[in-house]
Amino acid sequence: MSAENTGTHAPSAGEYIQHHLQHLQKDFSFQSVKQTSIVDFSLFNFDSVLFSVILGVIGCFVLWSAARKATSGVPGRFQAAVEILSEMVENQAKGVIHNAKSRKLISPLALTVFVWIFLMNAMDMLPVDLIPQIWHAAGPAMGFKDYMRVVPTADLSTTLGLSCSVLLICVFYNIKIKGLGGWAHELIAAPFGDHWALYPVNFLMQMIEYLAKTVSHGMRLFGNMFAGELVFMLIALMGGGWALSATGVGLAIGHVIAGTVWTLFHILVITLQAFIFMMLTLIYTGQAHDAH
After folding, report:
1. Mean pLDDT of 46-52
2. Active-site residue 245, yes or no?
3. How would you label 14-34 residue by residue, b for 16+ Cβ within 10 Å and e otherwise?
4. CA–CA distance, 218 with 212 (Å, rounded to integer)
5. Rounded to two decimals, what is the model's pTM?
6. Pick from 235, 49, 69: which is nearest to 149 by CA?
7. Is the pLDDT at 47 greater than 60, yes or no?
8. Greater pLDDT, 124 or 247
9. Which of 25-39, 70-84, 195-209 has the lowest mean pLDDT?
10. Is 72 assigned a catalytic role?
């Protein structure tokens, strides 16, 4: 932790956690624009963007490598693992999306979403202070603040950005499958019926449904990963309390045991959250194909 945050004393538990919950940001906005803006959009969480892009490239490279090395003979372990994953996603897509032409795009998209989110979630498995300590020496020297968070899905802007992207895909398929006029009629005719008196209520309910699905889609992933990140920070604090005393040794042993148990459990969490986000993506895009 930087001296500007801690002063000359060692950080307390609250200061340690507060520091680790700060995102790497740098303001490139013009001062005059910033002063007249009601909402400041000039701050970007560069750590979330950086790690999201890097992990996205890695995920695409892994899938591309599997496709390039695929053979019709006996597959190797890597090819077999990717084929099992692809078949799992395809089978799930067939259950909710009955349009074979749409599945040619949506199934690979869902597979990419699963792999990408899994990799972003898996950053939570790294030691809490590993990358931040490296950045502690390099970041301020380059003019950046001494902050670094490495789990993109523990950032609400990342998860809501993903869910908003799914919303745009749903809008695209609504228009593609039903036509602009057909979808517009559905917005005012469902769910209560095609009657002029019910049009405003129907439209309001449709907007609430789209908003609720999009917000809950992103919040579910964010909430689980943020909570997991906090638990790892608390476990790291136990290790920081190590000393040559009965209490200190007990904290060190508890740090190792708790860290191991939570890491093993968290493997299930990061996989399950990636699967749930992928399934909701398939379900929402499948609903865009259904007429009401």
Report:
1. 92
2. no
3. eebbebbeebbeeeeeeeeee
4. 10
5. 0.86
6. 49
7. yes
8. 124
9. 25-39
10. no
Domain map (residue ranges) of the chain: 19-29+39-287
Q: Across all residues in the chain, what is the average pLDDT? A: 85
What pLDDT does residue 249 have?
Answer: 77
Question: What is the Cα–Cα distance from 88 to 149, expressed in whole angstroms?
Answer: 32
Phi, then psi, of 127 in degrees rounded to 5: -55, 140
Mean pLDDT to the nearest integer, 66-89: 87
Matching residue, tokens 């003979």: 73
Active-site residue among 45, 107, 174, 224? Answer: 224
Place of tokens 């638990």: 231
Single out the catalytic residue among 12, 29, 216, 245. Answer: 216
Whether 216 is catalytic? yes
Tokens of 191: 């769910």
In this structure, the number of other CB atoms found within 10 A of the CB of residue 61 comes to 10
pLDDT digits over 88-101, tens only? 999 999 999 998 99
Given 86, 99, 157, 220, the catalytic residue: 220
